[in-house]
Amino acid sequence: MIRRSLQVQLTLLYAVPFMITGALLLSVPLFGISNTSPANGLQPRPEVETGSDRVLGLTVAAYAVMVVVSLCLGWFIAGRFLRPLRRSIEAQQNFVANASHELRTPLTAERALLQVALSDPDADAATLRSVCEEVLELGRHQESLIAALMALADGERGTRLRVHLDVKETTARVLDRADPRGLTVDRRLEPGPVTGDPRQLESLITNLVENALRYNVPGGYVTVTTGQRDGKTVVTVVNSGPVVPPDQVKRLFEPFARLTGERLNTEGHGLGLAIVQAIADAHQARITARARPEGGLDVTVTF
Fold first, then answer.
1. Of 145, 194, 140, 137, whose CA–CA distance to 170 is shortest?
2. Strand locations in the chain, DSSP E?
3. Fold of the domain built from segment(s) 163-302
4. What is the CA radius of gyration of the chain?
5. Does the CA dihedral 119-120-124-126 come out positive or negative?
6. What is the mean pLDDT of the chain?
7. What is the pLDDT of residues 160-178, one digit of tens each?
8. Which residue has better confidence, 153 or 241?
9. Helix, strand or coil, per DSSP, at residue 15
10. Residue 301 or 102, more confident
11. Mutual angle of helices 125-156 and 46-119, in 10-degree steps
């Protein structure tokens, strides 16, 4: 209802200039109609009066048509203007619904664990300690999810800080901190200058690497490449892993996206690649993602 009211207001706002312009143009013929009497005192000929009435009638009809056309154009332009806003509102509504669900799930699990432990009269110290450890693990998951939500919101707000840096150095720091999880990590790092927010760019590379490590297979590998290609700085992360249907790749960059209804790995929170997309958009970077036939992804960020 609010959006329809806003579209009506914008329609009137856009239609009024059309109406004013049309009124000025259509009033020109009326200026040509002379209402003065002839100098010799004779009455004007009837055909002259009839012609003037015809011009006046046509002008009024044209003005009515122009009002209708102006309203239609205003409605069309207002709809085009509000279309991205509608998509943004719908995306935000879906995001809030998904986020509330994701945050509610561990809370429900924590409550269930505590209720079961408290309702068991035979619970001993070992049982209560086990329950506390599970609750702490759920709490750590919540902390990770909240941190990811904040990173996503930070990326969507855009970047205010722009400094010159080298993605080679940033990527090296990320890889030094990363847990390889028994996988083979191949570094192919060459200098690549970028202008942007150092903290956000480090978050982008961190989430790319963590995504490649988490969604992998035992004994798999991750290859990280930085450098320049065709005069542009690129960061590429290639990993082995489960086979991803090509038509599902784009969905993986949406918040809380599921692959065929379920996550590939329950450890993740479904926001890593969404954060990468938000930060790339904030830095006017382009993401190219391809599903590898043998499994895994090939993701390239071009600055």
1. 194
2. 163-166, 184-189, 193-196, 221-229, 232-239, 286-291, 297-302
3. Heat Shock Protein 90 (3.30.565)
4. 32
5. negative
6. 79
7. 778 999 999 999 999 999 9
8. 241
9. helix
10. 301
11. 160
Domain boundaries, the chain: 1-35+43-119, 163-302
Record the pTM.
0.62
Looking at residue 76, its pLDDT comes to: 74
pLDDT at 46: 52
Give helix 272-282 / helix 125-156 axis angle, nearest 10°: 20
Residue 183 pLDDT > 90, yes or no? yes
Closest Cα to residue 188, out of 208, 212, 213, 171?
171
